[in-house]
Amino acid sequence: MMLLAKRIASGGAIVCAMLVGMLVIGVPVPIDERIVLRPPSANRAVPRDVIAQRLRTPDGGYVETWSVLGRRGMPWVLLNYGNAADLRGTLPVARWFARTTGATAVMWDYPGFGMSSGRPDIRAIRHDALLLYDDIRARSGVTPWVYGVSFGTTVAAWIAHERIVRGTILHAPPADAISEFTYGRDRWFPWPLRRLRPAPTDAVRDAFAVAATLRAVRTPLLVLHGTDDTLIPIAHGRRVFRESGSREKEFVAIPHAGHGDVRYDATPAGAAIAAFVRRNR
Fold first, then answer.
1. Are 177 and 231 spatial neighbours (Cβ–Cβ below 8 Å)?
2. Can you give the pLDDT at residue 5?
3. Can you name the residues that pair with 54 across neighbouring β-strands?
4. Distance from C-alpha of 11 to C-alpha of 17, rounded to nearest angstrom
């Protein structure tokens, strides 16, 4: 028994030493789509004021889209929601766009999210976002605006990079993956774990590189960011704005707003969006 106890103690000491060594040298921690993407369960009830459609994808799957109609003759806006969101949660923003700007607002469930088929996958999201852009561009007959909030800004920025857009509206964008995940580590993890190094996969790194993605984009840009955002700090939004290649761009700091404060009705943020849309009709 004494020998067994000594061996267990010795093994425990070795494990502890290894953990300490890992923290000292800063072992990389892989960050993949299973960590980043958080799809909610589907809510299949369709409100009366939306038009529900399914867009078929080349792999035999489909993405679910909802549209809130605006005024005839107005350009459309493609809405891209944040992580762990869904169509129903995005509906208030879509209704606000249609009511306030007159734009027909189209929102969609990402692959593996809500009512869309497939599995959560960043490259699939990017691929299907372009399919949806092409579809609404063909149906409306005009170039749309693109809007994104939080993770949705990575999708909106990608669309603006790959297609001609009327304007890009980003609410709380990350500038790059390493800075964002390092910030999250330092804010939420206890100090012994702050030596660990975030190691995002290529797909995650590419998606979160919003600042780099927008350097080549020249179309109008509006960036909104809450001053009290503790998930994606406002410094990220400022950097995205500063590094973008847009010839016409505006940055709006939303006083005392946190990451989830997406309120546009009778607010300075809403006024900025409405003015941006009017300028870029």
1. no
2. 38
3. 64
4. 10
Nearest to 187, CA basis, from 232, 151, 236:
232
Nearest to 221 by CA among 161, 268, 150: 161
Specify the amino acid at residue 63.
V
| Contact present, 233 and 188 (Cβ < 8 Å) | no
**Residues, the chain:** 281
**195: its two tokens:** 């030596």
What are 157's two structure tokens?
Answer: 């920025």
Q: What are phi and psi of 198, to 5 degrees?
A: -65, 135
User: Strand 104-108 vs strand 62-68: parallel, antiparallel, or unpaired?
Assistant: antiparallel
Q: Tell me how far apart the alpha carbons of residues 215 and 218 are, in angstroms, rounded to a whole number.
A: 8
**Cβ neighbours for 203, distance < 8 A, ≥ 6 positions apart:** 32, 33, 121, 122, 123
Q: Tell me the per-residue pLDDT of 233-258, one tens digit each, with 9 for 90 and over.
A: 999 999 999 999 999 999 999 999 99
DSSP string, 151-211: HHHHHHHHHHHHS--SEEEEES--S-HHHHHHHHHHHHS-GGGGG-EEEE-HHHHHHH-HH
Report the number of secondary-structure helices (H) and strands (E) in the chain: 10, 10
- CB half-sphere exposure, 136, CA atoms < 13 A: 32
pLDDT tens-digit profile of 82-115?
Answer: 999 999 999 999 999 999 999 999 999 999 999 9
How many Å apart are CA 259 and CA 226, to the nearest integer? 7
pLDDT in tens, 17-62: 333 434 444 688 899 988 899 998 777 788 999 999 999 999 999 9
Question: Per residue in 185-222, is it b (16+ CB within 10 Å) or e — as a string?
Answer: beeeeeeeeeebebbbbebbbbbbbbbbbbeebebbbb
